[in-house]
Amino acid sequence: MIDVLNTRLIIFDFDGTLADTTDTILRTYQMAIAETGAADRTDSECQATIGLPLKEGFRQLYPDFTDEKLDDCVRTYRRIFNSNKKDLVPELYPGVKDVLAKLSGKGIQMAVASSRSHESLIEFCDDNDITGFFSLILGADDVVHAKPDPEPVLTILKHLGKSPAHTLVVGDMPVDIAMGNGAGCRTVGVTYGNSSRKDLTKARAWRIIDSFPQLMAEIP
Hints:
Elements: E1 9-12, E2 19-20, H1 22-36, H2 43-47, H3 54-61, H4 67-84, E3 91-92, H5 96-105, E4 109-113, H6 118-127, E5 136-138, H7 151-160, E6 167-171, H8 174-182, E7 186-190, H9 197-202, E8 207-209
Parallel strand pairs: 1-4, 1-6, 4-5, 6-7, 7-8
Antiparallel strand pairs: 2-3
Helix pairs in contact: 1-4, 3-4
């Protein structure tokens, strides 16, 4: 039974939830697509893959590609990203740092579950001075089964000794909502990232908010 009055842990997605990484991701996608000689894809098509592990994102864009070709796309993307990351540091969405501080002050533990690699996730959190708010930061390469599988959330719950009944999962994409719901947690979808209210409703988000500070209204 989900306890809506006693949130003890909040698990956040990163891209499109805590930080505005959309331009960074789309620029890197387009550069990688051009370098590998793959057929053009629009920014909207690329944006629809955000939240998936990188290889699965390319698979969605190019379903006919072999695993070898997909791996080449991933390697190219990561090389371009790593060479440009100091110029592509994303900014936090308005109110994020202030709300994280308030939640910490209420004694609520926080964690991150992202489809980004662990290394770049830590770097972006460090660059934005928010790493210290989180008890655990989990990237796609820290689990066997990434989003939308519930494994990232279940891994965090086990590590921190928390119950899904007392846990909130917050993300901007349907895969975030599926991950949280699959683990038995409440889920909050955010509309300011890379998805829409319609898609988050279809994914069965428990609540939907339009700005990060609105999250405080869901925390007793």
